[in-house]
Each structure stands twice: as C-alpha cells, then as structure tokens.
C-alpha cells in the first residue's frame, strides 16, 4: 500500500476554525479568554465533573494534581507501572517517591491485590502512602470499585490518569471523575486534541482553585505582583481551547469510530487462538483509544510480537509495543515494585495497532493479514 498508516493521527472536525476565528476577532490571543472558560464548562458538562481546569499538557495536570493534594518530599505515591513515563515523572517533580504497582490481566491496569500488598507493607513500617495514581490504559477503565474501596479504607488520595480515556465509562459514569482528581490529555495523538494540552477534573473546588493559582505563577490576589509560593506557567491558551471546543463537539463520534476499529480488528483476529485483546468487563465502556493485543500460547511469542511489529513498520504501518513498565526502565528500576510480572509479560507480548478515526476497513484488512501471516 502506498500511503503510511499512522498509529493515532489527529482528526479535525471542521468546527475548530470558528472558535479560533472568534479568538482572533476578539483579540484573546492569550492564556485567558472566553474559549478557555467555555471549554472548561463544556468539559464539566461532558464528563459530569463539577469543576475543570484546562492546562498546557496532561503532564502539567498531573503535576498540579499532586501539588493540590499536598504531595511533597517524604511522601510515597503508589503508581501503576504499566504506563507512559508522563504518569510517573510528576511524582519526581514534587520530590516524592514513586512505588510501582503491577497490572492485572483483564484490563491490564493496576492490580488491586498488588496495591493492597504495597499499602500494607508501607503501613507496617509506619509510612502511610499519600496517593495512588491509577491509569486507564488505552482507554480501558481500571478496576475502579476495588481500587476506590482500598483508597477509602486506608484513607489515601486517588488520582486518575485518564489521559487516554476521555469518553470511557465505568458503571455509567465517565472515567476521570472517580478519583479525588482526574486528569486528561489533549496531545495530538489522543482521542481529541488541542494540539497540546490537558485538563484537571475534580468535584472539590479547593483542588481546582489551588491548581489554577499554581498554574498562573502563584500570583497573590492583590494589585501588585506579590508572591509567597513557587508557581508555574501551565495555563492553556485561548486558541488551543478553541480547538478543544471544536473537538469536544465530536468526541462521541470519535469514540464510536475507535470502537468500530476494535470491532473490525477483533472480528478478523479473534479466531486466532494466539491472540488476546484487552478485555472490556461487564459494566465498563472503553473508548478503545488504541486497539491493543497480546500474543500468547506461542512458545516463541516474543519473537512473534517482534516479528509482527517489524513487518508492520516495514510496510509503513505505524505500530508500537505495549508501554514498557516503569519498574523496568533504567530511570526507575531502583524503585520498589509490587506484583507478579503481568506488566512485564504484556510488554513482551503486546502490540498496539493503528487506531485512528480515519482508518478504512480495507486498511484494517491489510493490517490483519500481515499479523496473521507472521504469527509463527
Ligand atoms: C499522553 C499521556 C500523558 C501525558 O499527557 P501530555 O498531554 O502528553 O503531557 C500522561 N499519561 C498517559 C497515560 C498518557 O497517555
């Protein structure tokens, strides 16, 4: 095939320019303005969160979430190991210590048993963890009921990294609204984009106001420039918020399209016993941001997964392995880890397939044929 197939390219709705033009016409070319206020309001309406703060990236939102919860040096944060590095790095920004938690094999997200082992271990040595960061990998909600139960029981804050999960639901409620704070990303590869950006969601207005203050250089509310705290320049621009508004109008359509991709892939490949997809448990609705699969039941699975990745990329089909777990990264391998190597296995056997919303069924056919012919 002649054109390159990307993993998850941006897909404009055509409604973005209207909001960008409004910004130009009213001269709100700044990190304040009407698009920002409206985008935050629309995010609340869409997710059901009481409050929202738009910022310059998902990573900034995570950093602000930790600061708003008062996480700092001496604190332990229990973080899902199988994720993108941006989940863990903000723990280092605030000088806290990340401890990594393995995945379970259904949703591939944080294993509640490993989480409880870690909590009990730290309680037994008198160091109560301050916060948990759970991720909804590739849009699949984690086992929130169990994780929320543990966070309540042991009185530990929960941050939901829903960067990949806008539009996903758990028991009818939107991902990102279960934790004390949830974060979203609008990077170019996510389900909707502002070219680059993120948001923090919370029902607690105190966290949002604290984060808004820190994101605006921590300027005290007086007429002159008065500062008592180190702040950041993390606000979203009014132009980017305009892109976000045009994108948010079609988010449900994008979710439908991503889920249709998954249906095509699984329709073609489910009959192959070597292939397992990330499972959507009952009561859970994934946006299927990326279709991800695992090669198993093959003695040479790792070779298989690598072969398939090589073959796909050789044919101008952008595909990636599953995230390499944080506890196996040179950056974090000295940190404590609790679990049973599920995330390691997913990394070794797992592949993310092109999942953009402009894919043709013929593209998926073509991709599936390459996968099937390189399985053994
Ligand atoms: C994309 C992503 C982030 C970071 O978001 P940015 O907007 O790129 O800073 C954090 N966590 C996960 C799981 C992500 O996929």
Automatic annotation (TrEMBL):
Coiled coil: none
Gene3D superfamilies (alphabetical): Aspartate Aminotransferase, domain 1 (3.90.1150.10), Type I PLP-dependent aspartate aminotransferase-like (Major domain) (3.40.640.10)
GO molecular function list: transaminase activity
Species in which this protein is naturally found: Dyadobacter fermentans
Domain of life: Bacteria
UniProt similarity note: Belongs to the DegT/DnrJ/EryC1 family.
Full protein name: Pyridoxal phosphate-dependent aminotransferase EpsN
PANTHER family in the record: DTDP-4-AMINO-4,6-DIDEOXYGALACTOSE TRANSAMINASE, TRANSAMINASE
EC numbers on record: 2.6.1.-
Sorted UniProt keywords: Aminotransferase, Pyridoxal phosphate, Transferase
InterPro entries: DegT/StrS_aminotransferase, PyrdxlP-dep_Trfase, PyrdxlP-dep_Trfase_major, PyrdxlP-dep_Trfase_small
């Amino acid at each position: 095939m002649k054109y390159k197939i990307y993993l998850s390219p941006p897909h404009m709705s055509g409604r973005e320019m209207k909001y960008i033009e409004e910004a130009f016409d009213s001269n709100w070319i700044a990190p304040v303005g009407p698009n920002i206020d409206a985008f935050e309001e629309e995010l609340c309406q869409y997710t059901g969160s009481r409050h929202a703060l738009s910022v310059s990236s998902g990573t900034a939102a995570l950093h602000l979430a930790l600061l708003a919860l008062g996480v700092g040096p001496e604190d332990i944060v229990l973080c899902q190991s199988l994720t993108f590095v941006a989940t863990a790095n903000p723990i280092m920004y605030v000088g806290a210590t990340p401890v990594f938690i393995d995945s379970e094999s259904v949703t591939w997200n944080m294993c509640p048993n490993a989480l409880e082992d870690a909590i009990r271990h730290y309680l037994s040595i008198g160091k109560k963890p301050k916060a948990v960061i759970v991720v909804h990998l590739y849009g699949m909600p984690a086992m929130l009921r169990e994780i929320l139960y543990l966070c309540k029981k042991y009185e530990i804050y929960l941050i939901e990294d829903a960067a990949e999960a806008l539009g996903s639901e758990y028991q009818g409620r939107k991902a990102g609204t279960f934790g004390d704070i949830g974060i979203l990303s609008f990077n170019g590869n996510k389900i909707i984009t502002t070219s680059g950006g993120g948001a923090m969601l919370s029902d607690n207005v105190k966290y949002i106001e604290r984060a808004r203050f820190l994101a605006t250089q921590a300027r005290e509310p007086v007429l002159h420039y008065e500062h008592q705290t180190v702040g950041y320049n993390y606000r979203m621009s009014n132009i980017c918020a305009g892109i976000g508004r045009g994108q948010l109008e079609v988010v449900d359509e994008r979710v439908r399209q991503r889920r249709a991709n998954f249906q095509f892939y699984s329709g073609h490949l489910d009959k192959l016993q070597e292939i397992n997809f990330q499972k959507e448990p009952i009561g859970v609705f994934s946006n299927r941001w990326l279709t991800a699969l695992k090669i198993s039941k093959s003695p040479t699975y790792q070779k298989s997964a690598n072969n398939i990745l090589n073959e796909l990329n050789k044919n101008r089909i952008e595909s990636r392995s599953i995230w390499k777990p944080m506890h196996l990264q040179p950056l974090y391998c000295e940190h404590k880890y609790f679990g049973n190597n599920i995330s390691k296995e997913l990394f070794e056997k797992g592949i993310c397939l092109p999942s953009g919303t402009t894919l043709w069924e013929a593209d998926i056919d073509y991709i599936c044929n390459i996968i099937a012919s390189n399985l053994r």
